[in-house]
Write a structure and sequence with these properties.
By secondary structure, this protein is α+β, with helices and mostly antiparallel strands. The chain is built from five helices and nine strands. It has one domain (5-173): Alpha-Beta Complex (Nucleoside Triphosphate Pyrophosphohydrolase).
């Protein structure tokens, strides 16, 4: 398996170097990431269940797609690449906003990311990569928030944080515009 590197950044998203992905997660180093939220025409968000074999958070539900841009790759280029690699489709995407978070994960890893939230629209069926995704579903936004509150252990740590951030921007960012 090829080593993956993440882009280390400062609190202003200025690149300060690169580091092997697992090392960055073990050392809790701030790095650039993105979270894609794809909505259908009923404003339902597409979620995916991470493959059970993933190195962390296996079997948990999360947003449509998330990952890290590679050196020399824009956030949107990376979002299109990973959406195709994980979910087997592509669609128009746009960056909405970004935020920084830090969350402890299983396997003694920490996500410390400056996360760019990317929004898109898609109404078809994904072609899931089984190495990345166990299942998918669309959920109504309000029902999703209630389910996350009732069943937080079923969702990834970063998704719960991103959900709160996206919810604050819901009306202007998502409703009818994603």
């Amino acid at each position: 398996m090829q080593e993956e590197y993440v882009i280390l950044v400062d609190e202003n998203d200025q690149e300060i170097g690169t580091m092997e992905k697992m090392q960055a997660h073990r050392e809790a180093r701030l790095h650039r990431a993105f979270s894609v939220f794809v909505f259908n025409d009923q404003d339902e968000v597409m979620l995916h269940q991470r493959a059970f074999s993933k190195y962390h958070s296996g079997g948990l539900w999360t947003n449509t797609c998330c990952s890290h841009p590679r050196k020399g790759e824009t956030v949107l280029e990376a979002a299109h690449r990973r959406l195709q690699e994980e979910m087997g489709f592509d669609c128009d995407l746009r960056e909405a906003f970004n935020f920084t978070y830090k969350a402890a994960l299983d396997n003694d890893l920490t996500e410390y990311e400056l996360d760019h939230v990317v929004l898109g629209r898609f109404n078809g069926e994904p072609n899931l990569n089984p190495d990345e995704v166990a299942a998918y579903k669309y959920m109504n936004w309000e029902e999703l928030k209630q389910d996350v509150a009732s069943n937080p252990d079923m969702y990834t740590e970063w998704f719960k944080i991103a959900l709160d951030e996206v919810d604050q921007h819901f009306e202007q960012s998502i409703k009818g515009q994603a």
